[in-house]
Amino acid sequence: MSSGENESVNKLLEGYPDAALMVRGDCSVIAANEKGMGLKALLEHGEADAIPDMIAKAAAEMTVVVGPILFKSIKGEILLEVSVIPQLSSTAEASGDFLVLSHDVTMERNLRSALVESRQRYKDLVEVSSDFAWEISPEGTFSFVSPEGALGFTPDEIVGHHPEEFVIDAEHYQPLPFLSDRPMDSVEIWMKSATGKDACVVASCLPLMGEPGEWHGARGICRNVTEDREREAALRSAQEREYLLGYIVNSIRDELDPLNMLTKAATATSQALGASGCRIYRKTEDDTYNMAAEYGDVENTDGIEDLLTKIGDQIGAHPAEIGPWRMLATSTHYRQAINGGICIWKPLDDEGWDDNFHILIGDVANQIGIANEQIANHERIVNLSRTDGMTGLLNRRAFFEDELPRRFKRLEHNGQGAALFYLDLDNFKMVNDIHGHQRGDEAILCLRDMMIEYSRPGDAMVRMGGDEFALWMDGIPQDVMLKRVETIMEASQCLREFSGDPDHPLGVSIGIAVYDPSSGEDLESLVARADAAMYEVKRAGKSGFHVAAAAGET
């Protein structure tokens, strides 16, 4: 190549902003610009293997060959985009020389990689931070929704539709985030899901504005917080139930008298639950339900007992309709045994009982079950303390300290009379001595049965100890009293079969003192007269009765 041609080639190469070489077909370098000196050195040292291949291809096909070449350096990888251009002679034939042009695209590649990574990072963050992203077109319809769709809908079921079609009571939102002309953050919206269930989402949006201030749509994200809101609502309900149950339990616990516990419980339950009324039952040994306490409007509530019987040992609260009332009833238990029931009610016009009421009445029933058992235990203890273990009649303490003073005081107010019978078995010791105490116990029970048979439901009977008994009869006229004692004496003939021997027949001596409220006699004097009358019979030969003289008479 002549000097003139070299000068032309150098001038041509210097005008290229990156590395440029003129090479022959054997890859020897004819010329290179200043930036191409490094590439020239690589080519001459055989460290740019791809360039000879490109030259060979360009020579064979007589076409421009372009391709990337990656070089490794101390500072890292360098990516060049190399073009090999065959040169033509003045006669348009191949001259055998090739122009090699390179362009450093390392920065572009790094920037592109960084941009792709940034976009992927942003995409991942959007997807992680929300359930779906969306965009609204200038026409006010969805133009984009995340590929996974939203609320169970596919993108095709959403795109092209107005957001108002998916928002519940869209007119209540001013503005609706999907159509907002200003940025909005964390706005709660209730939307319809594909399953038909309401869904709560938190929406954030940015409007797309044109010039001058023209609304071109909006973009944003939504996060489904339905489960969060349901958990929060469940927690609030649990806290409310805990508060109400605490109020009811405290009302029961603060009552010292066991018999008033259920009254307090019925009142507190009805008031705490906003019910029109409440009734609590205790179950008897014959499996009937007896009302123990009630509160509120109790008209037209017949049938609750049948409802509780029908419920039986079924678990949970059971709603029902009785008359004008919407009922909610459940059994009460103690140690897995039914011991009563509780029922609340409200008007039929009100809404049905929701899950909160079902849960709460169940919790209350658990406490009532314990209270019922406490009351039953209390009654058993009281009964044991007031009754004779063998006969089941009142014992001496209960009769003289509780029953008799109470009845005596009542008669002082209403002016009615009464009669006190003192009964004592004759020759009873012989029964025990000859036939044994078992036979003596049978004789005692026989007298007990006779007293029960010839007394009235409201009369009070007591075993004072051993073979001594007493009977109190309210409001009994003198003639009726005499007939009654004569009947008892006739019936007492049955006691003879228990006699120790024929010479000592078992019988009963009865002393009677008649009480007249107008006499002003006190209880001690009345008891003393009955006791003295009974001993008068003993002195007269036993097995008979004697009526004591009236108070103040001898």
Describe the SSE topology.
Layout: H1 3-14, E1 20-24, E2 29-32, H2 37-44, H3 50-61, E3 65-73, E4 76-88, E5 94-104, H4 106-129, E6 132-136, E7 142-145, H5 155-158, E8 184-192, E9 198-209, E10 215-224, H6 226-253, H7 258-273, E11 277-283, E12 289-296, H8 304-311, E13 318-322, E14 325-334, E15 337-347, H9 355-386, E16 394-395, H10 396-414, E17 418-426, H11 428-435, H12 437-453, E18 460-465, E19 468-474, H13 478-491, E20 507-515, H14 523-539, E21 545-547
Parallel strand pairs: 16-18, 20-21
Antiparallel strand pairs: 1-2, 1-5, 3-4, 4-5, 6-7, 6-10, 8-9, 9-10, 11-12, 11-15, 13-14, 14-15, 17-19, 17-20, 18-19
Polypeptide structure, described:
Helix 6 runs antiparallel to helix 7. The protein folds into four domains: 3-109, Beta-Lactamase (2-Layer Sandwich); 130-224, 2-Layer Sandwich (Beta-Lactamase), CATH 3.30.450; 233-382, 2-Layer Sandwich (Beta-Lactamase); 394-547, Reverse transcriptase/Diguanylate cyclase domain (Alpha-Beta Plaits, 2-Layer Sandwich). The protein starts with a helix and ends in a 7-residue tail after the last strand. It is α+β, with helices and mostly antiparallel strands and 554 residues long. The model has no long low-confidence stretch (mean pLDDT 88). It is rod-shaped. The protein has helices at residues 3-14, 37-44, 50-61, 106-129, 155-158, 226-253, 258-273, 304-311, 355-386, 396-414, 428-435, 437-453, 478-491, 523-539; strands at 20-24, 29-32, 65-73, 76-88, 94-104, 132-136, 142-145, 184-192, 198-209, 215-224, 277-283, 289-296, 318-322, 325-334, 337-347, 394-395, 418-426, 460-465, 468-474, 507-515, 545-547. A hairpin with a 2-residue loop joins strand 3 and strand 4. The chain has a six-stranded mixed β-sheet with strand order 16-18-19-17-20-21, with helices on both faces. A five-stranded antiparallel β-sheet has the order 2-1-5-4-3, with helices on both faces.
